[in-house]
Amino acid sequence: MLYFNPMEKVIRRFGGIAGTLHAEVRQILNRYFPSTDFYFEGDANKICEQIVDQLFEGDFFRTSLGHFNFFWMRDFGTVCDSLVKLGYKEKAHHTLSWALFHYQRAGDVTLCIDKAGNTFNAPAKKSVDALPWLIHCLVVSDYKLNKMEHRFLERMLRRYCKTFLDAEHGDLKSMKYAEMRDAVYYDRSAYSLALVGRMAHCVKILGLKGFAYPVEHYQQVLHDQYWNGEFFKADYATNIWSSECALMPFFLNVIDDKEKAEKTFDYINKARLNALYPLQYCQEPYVFKYRFGMGRLFMNNYTGTTIWTWHGTFYLHILKKYGRDEYDEQYANFGAMIERHGTYPELLNADGSWYKTPIYRSDPGMVWAALFLELETKK
What are the b/e assignments for 137-156, b being 16+ CB within 10 Å? Predict the structure, then answer.
């Protein structure tokens, strides 16, 4: 049984602030005093194996070997299936058990948990995708919930619906929250919609009450309101490319439509978003409003024409799923990128060099390396 201290919320609020400040300090230190400890020898797969092995520390998988040295539900969510298939199922379950314990103590499911167990969201106060990624992980890892965890998640689902969805149809409300492209403010992104659709599918598998909306509704909304004939557009109001929004419906199998996937791949080729390494984030980075400190002045082009390895691996997985001819070339290019830098970088400049600004430096040794490792095991 979990016991709650009356000062728990106050303590955790300060812990969350401390965790965020810790990450910011490590970012600045990484920028001016970059470590050479995280350069790995070997081919791309060997480099990724070493990274993944080092990222499990004690109770959980850290997000990176750099300043993201704590737990992010979103990042772990994207790699959990890969970790299980690579033989890390026990460690994935240990991570989920550890996270669920701290979530229950905090009375909330957040994006981040630090080593001390402090839970917090960053950079926004609310996260639209933490709970969907957690529930996705429970399904892909075949995690067995105990009664307390089951009741807690049903309570979180009811809270989620009240916070983020309209009561009649379960559509996303127009509001500000944290999501994968957390530097900008979207208006109901295709990424967020895909995550809600995935959660709708997973709650049925887990037998969880508290979420009444069918996955078919979200599939229909994506088809009718987000597909522009070439790709799933960034958000409800903006008809432009953003990689996580265009790819996540396919990656999570919320949409399994070969014709739409083929048109998406054709657009990527036409726009040369994969010209050097896969994959460029977007084409028009300053259409959106940016969060303070993450825009042109301090972190110029952070989620712009930069190459994001996270999205590159989503792209490779989908290419392989649909048997596209360019898969072998793109896989080889991605491997060459890993070997060039001796690590799995967070993001790179468009010319393949390491991204850095006066206050931010791309992180080394991302847990996303598991996504690349899994590709060799997939038929």
Answer: bbbbbebebeeebeebbbeb
Entry pTM: 0.92
Q: What is the domain partition of the chain in residue ranges?
A: 8-375
C-alpha distance from residue 96 to each of 35, 71, 320, 341, 367 (Å): 30, 11, 28, 31, 15
Chain-centre distance for alpha carbon 185? 16
Beta-strand pair 307-308/289-290: unpaired
Q: What is the pLDDT of residue 3?
A: 42
Q: What angle do CA 307, 331, 47 make, to 5 degrees?
A: 80
Residue 216: alpha-carbon gap to chain centroid: 23
Q: Evaluate whether 196 touches 172 at the Cβ level (below 8 Å).
A: yes
Asked if residue 123 has a cis previous peptide bond (ω within 30° of 0), the answer is yes
**Euclidean distance between CA atoms 203 and 200, whole angstroms:** 6
> Mean pLDDT across the stretch 189-203?
98
Residue type (1 letter), 122: A
Are 242 and 181 in contact, with CB atoms under 8 Å apart?
A: yes
Cα dihedral across residues 6, 95, 254, 193: positive or negative: positive
Residue 291 pLDDT > 80, yes or no?
A: no
Architecture of domain 8-375: Alpha/alpha barrel (1.50)
The packing angle between helices 190-206 and 130-140, to 10°, is 40
Residue type, 299: M
